[in-house]
Amino acid sequence: MAQIVFQGASALALDAKGRLAVPARHREVLAALAQGQLTLTKHPDGCLLMFPRPGWEGFRDKVAALPMSVAGWKRVFLGYAMDVEIDSASRVLISPELRAAAGLVKDVVLLGMGSYFELWDRERYAAHEAEVMQQGLPEALRDFSF
């Protein structure tokens, strides 16, 4: 299969049970790439990471191989990891623990980040993005050609 790249933002809403409807543009690829199997976990920036299962397995193995000096980060990534499946209505159930960890209540933003997604509370993401923009362009991007 060719290199899959998830990109773009989707403004979505969790339902009363904490389920997220997977955007139509990603459903077919996720079904083919991961048979609808995903893994979610915490991100240190206050959002959730959502991986197709094969991508998660590579990430998980890298985290598990880290030295004990970063055991706290291993707990963040691996300790909160939850395997989920896209249901017949194209929804994913976000556990109460993960919703609480990322402050997800209703309005969310799903960002395609290449090989995975980030899931943010809409207001938290707007504040995070404003903070990033206020910092100005980092040195690594100053000579980047658009």
The end-to-end span amounts to: 28 Å
Order of helices and strands: EEHEEHHEEHEEHH
Rounded mean pLDDT score: 93
Q: Could you describe the largest sheet, including whether it forms a barrel?
A: 6 strands, antiparallel
Which structural class matches the secondary elements? alpha+beta
- Categorize the overall geometry: globular
Question: Care to count the β-strands?
Answer: 8
Low-confidence stretches: none
Radius of gyration: 16 Å
Count of separate DSSP helical elements: 6
Strand order of the largest sheet: 1-7-8-4-3-5
CATH superfamily: Transcriptional regulator MraZ domain
Percentage beta strand: 25-35%
Q: Count structural domains.
A: 1
* CATH class descriptor name: Alpha Beta
The third-level CATH topology is: Chemotaxis protein chec
The CATH architecture comes to: 3-Layer(aba) Sandwich
Percent helix range = 25-40%
Can you put this structure into words, describing what you see?
The chain is α+β, with helices and mostly antiparallel strands. It has one domain (6-117): Transcriptional regulator MraZ domain (Chemotaxis protein chec). The protein contains six helices and eight strands; from the N terminus they run E-E-H-E-E-H-H-E-E-H-E-E-H-H. The chain has helices spanning 24-34, 53-64, 71-79, 96-102, 122-134, 139-142, and strands at residues 6-13, 19-21, 37-42, 48-52, 82-85, 91-93, 107-114, 117-121. A hairpin with a 5-residue loop joins strand 3 (37-42) and strand 4. The longest helix is centred in the last third of the chain and has 13 residues, at 122-134. The radius of gyration is 16 Å and the shape is globular.
